[in-house]
Amino acid sequence: MIDFTFSEEQEMFRKAAREFALGEFPAVALEYDINETFPAEILKKARELDLIGLFIPEEYGGPGLGYFEQALVLEEFWKVDPGIAQELCSVSFGAEELLLFGTEEQKKKYLPPIFNADGILGFAITEPDAGSDTAAATTSAVKDGDDYIINGSKVMIGNGTVGTHMLVYCLTNPDAPAKTSRHSIILVETDREGYKAEPMHGKMGLRASDTAAIYFNNCRVPRENLIGVEGNGFIQLMKFFDHSRAYVAAHGVGLAQGALDMAVKHVKGRKQFGRPLGAFQSTQFKIADMITKVETARNMTYKSAWLLDQGKPDTKLTAIAKMYACHVAVEVVDEALQLHGGYGYFNDYDIERFYRAAKVLEIYEGTKEVEKIIISREVLGKL
Q: Is the pLDDT of residue 155 over 80?
């Protein structure tokens, strides 16, 4: 039986995350967004408080909690500022792949620096001509003795310029009959010769998070950096998404709740025609719809994260949670800005920044269209 009553430990982490976000984010959020500033000092403090990578076991340096706790913390972060929250989430992005498929030696080597040093992970998947169609990726890794030599490029990669280690989705077996058996995942230390990252400026939202184009030019990496099995990269990537999408859904829930909170505060304080906006039935109906959507998305998200912690990942449910929660974020922030009227169009109000941040939730980690394909295939099978 699922019980979403928080344990004492879960409530402690949720409260700590909320207090940390409220204490650290608001004073710099707008500035970091305008200037595309990486939140280095905030990240350092989050490390000290064990508020990153909560699902990583203690034996590898992590807090040793679960994906449910990860979702709780990220929801609180995203309520306050999506841009800073995104970076605090992405510092451990790819750790799931190491936990699922890495050797014991790899886990002990690459995971602890996330917590006890300045380690920052990234996962380079997307290419200029291979976004949703990951099986079409052409960045190649060719064997040369005991090494792989990597050539190609990736785009829109989180932590490309600030990361210390990058998991790279590479074409290693181009002649394999099945498209799903041609790729592998290889870990690249970003200080290796042949690795070059250039920041991608001008994002619509989440501007405090690092996003880059990465170029590999005869980047030589030892074969021991292969994660999992050669040629199994596509399957491993899908398993990774079954985990990561659960807490991306929490991003959507947090952003939606933050927007809802702003809307409630505004309609209670703003007066028109001699009455608070919240006194009008049309406003009340909007608020009721927003609350219903957020609560529904939250329950889907919690269940998908809870199942991961039970060792029972549910591809269909995780896709549903990710698709629905992120769509709800877009809908709720739109209504919240509408309730702010013209004021919401200016960055003096946080809702403007939330509005710009929301849309990418329906794009990264699988577009809403891809999620629908996954959901339908899980039910219909391959026809």
A: yes
